[in-house]
Amino acid sequence: MEVLFGRRSTRRSCFRALEMQPARFGSTVASLAFVFFFLGLLVAEVEEEEKKKTFIFLVDPKQKPSPFVSHSHWYSSLLPTSATVVHHHHSLFNGFSAARLTVSQARSVGRCHGVVAALDDYLLRPHTTRSPSFLGLDLPASRLSATSYGGSAAVIGVVDTGIWLERPSFSGRGLGPLPRRWQGRCDQGAGFNRSKCNRKVVGARAFFAGYAAAFGITNTRRGDAVWSVRDHDGHGTHVASIAAGAPVDGANFYGFASGIARGVAPHARIAIYKACWDEGCMVSDVVAAVEAAVSDGVDVLSLSIGAASPAPSYELDPLAVATFRATIRGVFVSASAGNGGPAPRSVGNIPPWITAVGAGTIDRDFPAVVLLGNGTRIRGTSISLRRHQYLLGRRHQSTPVVSAGIIAALADLTNLSVAGFIVFWKSNGHVSRIEIAAELKRLGAVATIVFHGEFDPDGIVAEGHVVPTVTVGSQGAATIDAYLKTVRNPTAVIYSQGTAVHPGVGAPVVASFSARGPNPAVPWVLKPDLLAPGVDILGAWTGSVGPSGLRSDARQPMFSVASGTSMSCPHVSGVAALVRSALPEWSPGEIRSALMTTAMEAGIRDEAKENSGGPLAMGAGYLCPERAADPGLVYDLEYEDYVELLCGLNYTARAIDIITGRAGVRCGDAGAGLWGFNYPAFVASAEDVTLMGEAVFQRRLRRVDVGKKGQWYRAEVASPEGYAVEVEPRRLWFARSGEGERVEFRLALRCIEDSPNNGRRWWWRGGSLTWREEGGKKRRVKSPIVVFSISDM
Ligand SMILES: *[C@@H]1O[C@H](CO)[C@@H](O)[C@H](O)[C@H]1NC(C)=O
Ligand SMILES: *[C@@H]1O[C@H](CO)[C@@H](O)[C@H](O)[C@H]1NC(C)=O
Ligand SMILES: *[C@@H]1O[C@H](CO)[C@@H](O)[C@H](O)[C@H]1NC(C)=O
Ligand SMILES: *[C@@H]1O[C@H](CO)[C@@H](O)[C@H](O)[C@H]1NC(C)=O
Question: Which pTM does this prediction carry?
């Protein structure tokens, strides 16, 4: 990727309608300094120069030449006739998305007076019930659920694949009237009658013009079957129900995970913004959805979607810009951290104002057993076997097993004779496992055993296969391999042990697939921020397609089981809605601080063996909502803090302008922004610490408990191995009794013993700082301290 900067001298007035009145326009231009910001244009590849794409143009609205009666007249005058405007943006930022422009045309529009930036459109994809009680949110014991009335005052905006509104999870029964400030609406669409919206689903809107342009779909009539809010995928329905589904008795997936299914914030309202279609979600549509959500009045935005790779810089990423402005308006933005783990630096959705959520397990799984013909039992997981039943009926009726090796393409399966066999196969992570298993079934396999392969050797998640399938880990796979090699007529019996719930034992664990830090762009800001349940999660499902997502899958369960950071993100969205309901005056930064400093981190293991957990895998720890509403102290983060961080990162004034939308930001002492960014974690690279001799972080804490007058908090430090940590002062005194008092402190990190690199590509050392309330409730405000070293990859 390459960033091109236009020159000031190349700026021109390029309005077709204005060419008659250059003098008048020229004076307008001279009076406004804003026009002198240079254009930055992201150009994916030079050879794609003439390929037509969509661009998102940010403009300075004050620069609209007066002859144009409206901004939309102005915008269309800027474009070549072949291009079309697909979205107007006028709430979070001013500008428009325009389709069918070549890079050189876009560059040329970008040079026009009043155009601030031209940003590339790009594709995001969805990051594919017991979990609320595992989090401790069971009513009536939960204080948070009670004080927040289940989140009924909060609206969660879900930008995703739409909704299957008829599921009981989306019943509005028993809910009070909508929050008065709510401005949202439901759009009529094919198969989607807006009168079905209720006190639970309070908004449903579709955004598709960017997608239609990108995929050359010419039929863009709103309300046509393709463009309905109705979910034809399942992902949107699933995540919405996780965040705020109403309680449903007797929910289950073919007998698995049965019980009461309930969203994290069961009384919170849901507003659906459908911006994801068959191939994914164009950011031009996502940004339009985010804008609509913020204008409608959502409290929380839940984004279980992500791009293939992060933009090189926030001002080049329309979603980073839109979410920044949403955050400044008080909207809490949570997003999935991505499923690219366990590789380091795989984390996505990393702008510092977004809460990036990794995935952990819960205390429930779906054990299944492969009993080899020689008597060895291998444990795995399955939701595609019938519960408690032996495959093919009887216990001792073994079935022949055959190995299909690593399946790298569906074509590898052609002519495979597997009829009547249990097929053992390995995934390479690039072809849909669901489709491979379906093809094996078509070829006559009676069941399959799958190993998720080298890219995720320790990952064991249950998937909605259309053929009975057991997923095994690397050890199990090795045993099966050895058995198949040494035995002439290998056989096996496979069976499900149903649903196992094991409170307090072995959970949570960081899911192997959960994306990891260090933060690839801004290593000082810990990403992911925290973990939430994301493995084998039960949620409502669409009636349009079976749980495997295959068109041939005729199953129509009301609930399905899915895994991914897509599933962990709405857990955090739900808890944020509860906190917002209970404590409406808290800013998004304060809510995040509360979630992070109260998270649980002790004893959390990592499913991936190569990558031993720690804060770069789990952030501050595992979401612990009960404590989140009563953290004692918060690290607050406001507009100025973000600007100082951008200054510290050497963002140009122009870049900061694009992100903030406020002209004329001046940077002060640059270093303050990096080490003084008031984020509830302390992260430094070993190289920085060595170079500076000492890394000194400045932070401030705001007291949020209304307690007795005068309160001490005491620092408890666990130093990372090889490092010394000094906190000054060691005790913090909050003199007033009310909320809101702020106290500052500094933390210095010094290397006392060089960490041997041992030729490893990367390493990390973790510690923590805990502010412990003296007396009272002994609240703890805990933050990770991380030192890492990573050689360039
Ligand atoms: C939507 O539902 C309402 C109430 O059930 C009904 O009167 C109306 O005809 C429906 N509209 C469409 C377009 O189906
Ligand atoms: C599969 O079998 C058919 C018919 O026997 C043959 O024409 C084809 O080449 C085979 N394909 C592969 C990939 O072996
Ligand atoms: C069955 O075979 C596997 C693979 O060779 C071996 O590891 C295992 O010990 C055998 N089990 C028994 C009970 O012999
Ligand atoms: C910002 O620029 C200064 C001066 O060139 C440099 O020392 C510093 O390392 C830069 N900071 C970052 C985060 O790149």
Answer: 0.90
